[in-house]
Structures are given as structure tokens and as C-alpha cells.
Amino acid sequence: MSKHASSDLSTLGLDELRELVVALLERVAALEAENAALRDENARLKGLKGRPKFKPSGMETKTGAATTTAKRGGKGKRRSDGSSKDNRRVLAVSEEQRLRVQVPPGSRFRGFEDFVVQDLRLESRVIRYRRERWLTPEGQTVTAPLPPGLCGHFGPELVRFIILQHIQGQVTTERLTVLLNEIGIVISKRQVIRLLNGDPGGLNNEAVELFRAGLKTADWITVDDTGARHAARNGVTTQIGDARFTFFATTFSKSRLNFLELLRAGHGDYVLNARAFDYMREHSLAGSVIGRLEDYAEKSFADAAAFSELLTQLGIDQLDVHPNPIKIATQGALWGSIHHHGLLNDTVIVSDGAGQFRIGQHGLCWIHAERLIHKLIGFNETQRQAIDLVRQLVWWFYADLKAYKRDPQKPRATQLRARFERIFKRKTGFITLDRLLARLHARKPELLLVLDRPEIPLHTNGSENDIRCHVTKRKISGGTWSDAGRQARDSFLAAMKTCQKMDVSFFHFLGDRLGVPNATKIPPLAVLVSAAKA
């Protein structure tokens, strides 16, 4: 490079240098493609096979490659022996046995050589409680009470084992019944299902309480959903959570109305307050309809029937206008109820962009946004190069967003907004790609919300990881039939995932809730979730 060129480069700004690099990359990519085509043609003439084609890696993998290498200790470093942190911790010795050995006379004792062994004992226990019965002078019979924690004729240790195997171990009820019978427990599959569905330990209520605590204290939540079968019908399981908690709910709808009902966290009322009316205005409900609702004296309604009666009384259900006034008014009253109970206070909802999740402060997952570009198919080399170039620009931008999250600065946010404009307003000549970029540009506030709220995640990987246990459960055990079974499955999985996030043993948690003697005491999950925020 000449001295003059070098001096010209020294005057360029960071963004201009990036554009120069992009142009050079385009030239290099074109040369590489030309060379690859020549090599393939040469191989074909020689009767050899062409190069194998590999799919490009995803955006998160691309931007996190250096971090992954660093975590592994660099190239060539010896891999670990596979032992986890739990396996390396100091073991508490519960039993000690002295092993003796025959030695010749005159030998001197030199102490002990310890050898620690972990073992497990599975055996059936049949306990007969001989309950005292007394006849009082008044003629009443008094019988000694049974110990707490019993589920009918089955003890808490057995119930804990069943829950652990079925929920955490993903063992079907059929196989679990066979296993218990082999150990010596006389129990049927029907009894196993009754134990699972009987809300042992009050976990259904605890799941609702931890959900409320999470929504009251969350800076952000990520959401996702997956298919589910219940009562021989197709349904949907919705996941809601953050880094501290997870909640699952299975319903038959993916609508926004259903999502708002879930966000009430067990409350059933409808409230007309400032938040409710703001929601109605944002969604273009007619001013005359909002006026009728604002003038009505009563602002809180106990349930859906009471609120529906109000809409009928005000004649709103007779209006044939767009948008549907009943739908918007009901959604607004649900949104008002959510904030009336102190939930979602300045909380950002991060999703994959599905319409039902786009309420309040909404952030869009960058991984799903980039995936739209990745799925495009170019029909010639020029189109394929355009797609690869845009993806590379998005990867760089995504990496810089992650750097911004670590050290947010206002001048840097301004630069990133300007770069977003240049990337998503590009004209590549590939009309399908240009339309997609324009579509993503229209979602700029949701994609760049992280610049104002750097604490929120850039993706919904947490939700996808959480909901995987539900998908596995569906594949192994199928669907549920009773409402009690559906609720039990969602509550167990929510408690298990929350325990993992709070670094609490699910085994000890169940032991405490089921009343296992001498079990480790575990505070309510709602208390742990709230304390994690503080």
C-alpha cells in the first residue's frame, strides 16, 4: 500500500473503515467463489468428487466462537475427565466400617487408609402404625393421629421417589409401576397416577405463588410455547420465565386474550383503570366506547361473566365495528387487572415475535430475526453472496450489541442505531431479501430496545431451554387426560426448573414439601425468587 493510501486510511472513521472492510470482503468472497468453481470443475474433469457442502453455523455460535474456545482453554488443551462440580464436592460420610486384616505376629499398627464408596439402598418398607384408641368418660372414642406426610397408604419417601422418577427422570408410569413392584412395593399404575395428580405437598399453589413473585420483581421475561395434547385435543403449553423462575401453563388457545389471562397469575378479576384505557387507545378502540366504560361507576369485576354483563348493559356487544370492541375492551380490562395486582411493573417481554406476545414493552429475539435471513434461498451466485454479506453484517452488529450490554454508553448507542439504519436499509438487488430487511427495519424499536434496557437478553434461548423438558415429557409420556393431571405436570416441571435456576436440590425440595422426616428445610420458592431480585 502506498504512503498516500495509508494517510487516506488514517483519516477514515470507524464506520467508514467498516464499510471499506465490507467491500474488501465482497471482493474476497467473489474471488474465493471463482477459485472454488475452478477447483470443482478441475475435479469433475478428473473424475473426482466435489467438495462436501456444510450448513453455516447459527448466529449465536458464530459470535460466541471465541468465547467458547476460551472457555475450553484454547485449542489443543486436554479435555476434562467429565466429572461435574457436584461429583467433585466433599462427601458427607453417613456410615463408617472398620476393615480388619490378618497380619503376622510382631506387626506394628500404622493407622488407617480411607477409601470412600458411594452406594444406594432401595428397599420396600411396610410400616404398621398401631394407633391407640381410648374411650373417654363422655363416651367418645379418641384415636392417635397418623404422622404427617402420608398419602393414603403410601409414605412421603415413596411419593418423592415417584415424582423424581416421573418428572425429573422422565420415566413413564407403566415402567415406574413395574420398577416399584420389582422392589417389593405393591402398587398399581392407577395408584401411581393418583399420587402424581393429587397435588402432593401443595405444589400447585406454590407454582402460582412463585409465578406471582417472579412477575412482580422481573426486569424482563422471555416467553415461548409448544404443542401439547390434553383430553385427546391439541393444545398449547406456554412458558414464562427469567433467570430466576419458570412457569408453565397448558391451554387450548394461542391467542393474546389467553396470554393476558395467564399473566394475571391466578387472579380472575377484570379491572378498568388507567392502564386498561391506555391499552384500548393504543389498539384503536373507538373513543365513544372508551367513554362509555370510563363513565361507568364500577371499575372492578369479579369474573368474565360480570364483565360480559357490563358490555351487554352498555350495548358494546351490539356494535359492528373494527376493531372488535368486545375483544379490545376485554383485553384492556385484563391488562388493567395485571397492573392492578402489581405484576409486570416496567417489565420487558422478549419473544420470538409471535403476535400474542407483543404487548407492553416488547423486545424481539435477534436469533429468530436472523433466522429469517438464513432461511432465504438464493437462485444465483449474486443472490447467495448478498445473503451471506447481510448475515455477516448482522453477526457483527449482534456481537457489538453483546459488547454494549457489558458496557452500555450513550454515544455507543447512537452509533449502533445509525449502523442499524445502514444495514436494514441496504438495497441488495435481491428483491426478496430487500423486502425482508425492510420488514425487520419496521421492528426497529423492538430489536433495539436493548440499547435503552441493556439488562434484557438479546434472545429467547432461556425459554427454549426451559420448554425442552415439556417437549421431552410429551414425547415420552404423551398427553394428559384429566385437568388435575395437566395441572400437576405443569406445576412439577415449573418447580423443577425453578429449583435448578435457584441452585436448590429438587430432591431436598420435595422432601421438605412432602414431609419426609429429617428433610432439609427449603424456603418457599416465591421467597427465593423475590430474594434473588434483591
Précis, in short:
With 534 residues, this protein is α/β, with parallel strands linked by helices.
Set out the fold topology.
Elements: H1 3-10, H2 14-45, H3 59-63, H4 65-71, H5 85-88, E1 133-135, E2 141-143, H6 156-168, H7 173-183, H8 189-197, H9 203-217, E3 220-230, E4 233-241, E5 246-251, H10 256-263, E6 270-271, H11 274-282, H12 287-295, E7 300-301, H13 304-313, H14 325-340, E8 348-351, E9 361-364, H15 366-374, H16 381-406, H17 410-424, H18 431-441, H19 444-447, H20 461-477, H21 483-501, H22 506-514, H23 525-533
Parallel strand pairs: 3-8, 8-9
Antiparallel strand pairs: 1-2, 3-4, 4-5, 6-7
How much helical structure, as a percent, in the residues? 40-55%
Radius of gyration: 31 Å
Structural class: alpha/beta
Q: Give me the number of helical elements.
A: 23
> Please, what is the oligomeric state?
single chain
Tell me the distance between the termini.
Answer: 57 Å
Lateral strand order in the biggest sheet? 5-4-3-8-9
Shape, principal axes of CA atoms: globular
**Biggest beta sheet attributes:** 5 strands, mixed
Notable traits:
5-stranded mixed sheet; two-stranded antiparallel sheet; 534 residues; 23 helices; 51% helix; alpha/beta
Give an account of the 3D structure.
The protein is α/β, with parallel strands linked by helices and 534 residues long. It has a domain at 366-451. The chain is 51% helix and 8% strand. The chain contains 23 helices and nine strands. It has helices spanning 3-10, 14-45, 59-63, 65-71, 85-88, 156-168, 173-183, 189-197, 203-217, 256-263, 274-282, 287-295, 304-313, 325-340, 366-374, 381-406, 410-424, 431-441, 444-447, 461-477, 483-501, 506-514, 525-533, and strands spanning 133-135, 141-143, 220-230, 233-241, 246-251, 270-271, 300-301, 348-351, 361-364. A hairpin with a 5-residue loop joins strand 1 and strand 2. The protein is globular and about 100 Å long. The protein starts with a helix and ends with a helix. The model is unreliable at 1-7 and 65-84 (pLDDT under 50).
